[in-house]
Amino acid sequence: MSSKDAKRDAIVLATLTHVPFDGWTVEALQRGAADEGMTSADVDVLFPDRSRGVIRHWLQMADRQMLEDLADADLKSLRIRDRISLLVRTRLKRWAPHREAVRRALALSVLPGYSEDSLRGAYATVDAMWRAAGDRSTDFNFYTKRGLLAAIYSSTLLVWLDDRSEGCADTWAFLDRRIATVMKVPKAQSQVKEALSRLPNPLSLLRRSRRTA
């Protein structure tokens, strides 16, 4: 990691404590920088696009730290569904003290100027999760898997934001149900294809009826 990125990490973490009171504003950013002994000039250099740059770096940092947190985990010994569950849990658990900052960032994500970064960040997150889970697909499944995981992660995130159950038990139960539901889709598609393969070819039936007529 470069020294600039290390400084960005420090400012982001310090800024998070001010976001619940000041929002994702220049004031929160400057206060976070001051907490780390940095000045407004440092902020100008490290985050020239202000809050947008802070949130963008936070998303990248969260992906990086998720992988670092699981560096010693034996993911290969787990089923795919359990790998994905562990990855999502690990990512969210780290930011539990900053749910309000997450909530406010999510609110900004639909606004012009933030939406593109939000979409890029969401894609980078699910891509990092699938790669960590061992996915090496390069065909159409590559996009299908990421689209499905994006739906799982985003819906779980919304539940997690308002979860007050002990140890976020309600969120993790919801996550496992969503994963189980999605895992049934390929199996159902396979069963439908197998059933259809047993049916007569409709073109053959049409040709046969014409000959009979």
Would you kindly provide a brief summary of this structure?
The chain is an all-alpha fold.
Tally of separate helices: 11
Q: What order do the SSEs take from the amino end to the carboxyl end, as H and E?
A: HHHHHHHHHHH
Structural class call reads mainly alpha
CATH topology of the largest domain: Tetracycline Repressor, domain 2
Sequence stretches where pLDDT stays below 50 over 5 or more residues: 188-197
pLDDT averaged over residues: 88
Strand content: under 5%
Count up the domains.
2
Please provide the count of β strands.
0
CATH class of the largest domain: Mainly Alpha
Basic shape: globular
Major β-sheet profile:
none
**At CATH's second level, what is the architecture of the largest domain?**
Orthogonal Bundle
Helix content: over 70%
CA gyration radius, whole angstroms: 23 Å
Terminal Cα separation, in Å? 77 Å
Description:
The protein has two domains: 1-48; 69-212, Tetracycline Repressor, domain 2. Helix content is 75%, strand content 0%. It has helices spanning 3-16, 19-22, 26-35, 40-46, 50-69, 80-94, 99-108, 115-132, 140-161, 169-197, 202-212. Helix 1 (3-16) crosses helix 5 (50-69), helix 5 packs parallel to helix 8 (115-132) and helix 9 packs antiparallel against helix 10 (169-197). The longest helix is centred in the C-terminal third of the chain and has 29 residues, at 169-197. The model is unreliable at 188-197 (pLDDT under 50).
